[in-house]
């Protein structure tokens, strides 16, 4: 089982890495951010939009009083936030809230189960929260890696991703 410290560390890691990717992406033209680069969600912008969609989807399950489930499906998630400035602003706001959520994390909450309907599995599921929170952070890291590779290929220079280098 993961610890509260793990959740807090990865919330800060998420914020650090998103700042890096968004700063690197901001140096590209809109056309370059929107260019289909063959990733799961097409473009840099589409991938970053999907990550935020996924984060909001999971937080609507973790903290339903604070987060509303996204109205769109995973296949349309790359287009959820078509305006770059809006996407950037929402990302910054979410990341700050995620750090606050992690700071308030309770080991008892983390040790209990989460029950939800999974559109991906097309069924009701129940699993330990610690496992699903691990998946939440893993999902971010997976798609940020794709965004990092696309940014690097486009000539942008995001920060290193090594956890031990986190300020």
Describe the structure.
- By secondary structure, this protein is mainly alpha-helical.
- It has a single domain, classed as dinb family like domain (Four Helix Bundle (Hemerythrin (Met), subunit A)).
- It has 6 helices and 2 strands, in the order αααααββα.
- The protein has helices at 4-26, 30-34, 44-62, 84-103, 107-111, 129-153, and strands spanning 113-118, 123-128.
- It has a two-stranded antiparallel sheet with strand order 1-2.
- The protein starts with a helix and ends in a 14-residue tail after the last helix.
- The model has no long low-confidence stretch (mean pLDDT 96).
Descriptors for this entry?
167 residues, mainly alpha, two-stranded antiparallel sheet, 2 strands, 58% helix, globular
What is the tally of beta strands?
Answer: 2
Mean pLDDT: 96
What name goes with the CATH superfamily? dinb family like domain
What level of helicity do the residues show?
55-70%
How many structural units, i.e. domains?
1
Any guess at the CATH architecture?
A: Up-down Bundle
Number of helical segments? 6
Morphology: globular
CATH class type: Mainly Alpha
Oligomer: single chain
Rg, Cα atoms, Å: 16 Å
Strand content: 5-15%
Give the terminus-to-terminus CA distance: 25 Å
Helix-and-strand structural type: mainly alpha
Which regions contain 5 or more consecutive residues with pLDDT less than 50?
none
Q: What topology, given as strand order, has the largest sheet?
A: 1-2
CATH topology description:
Four Helix Bundle (Hemerythrin (Met), subunit A)
SSE order, as H and E?
A: HHHHHEEH
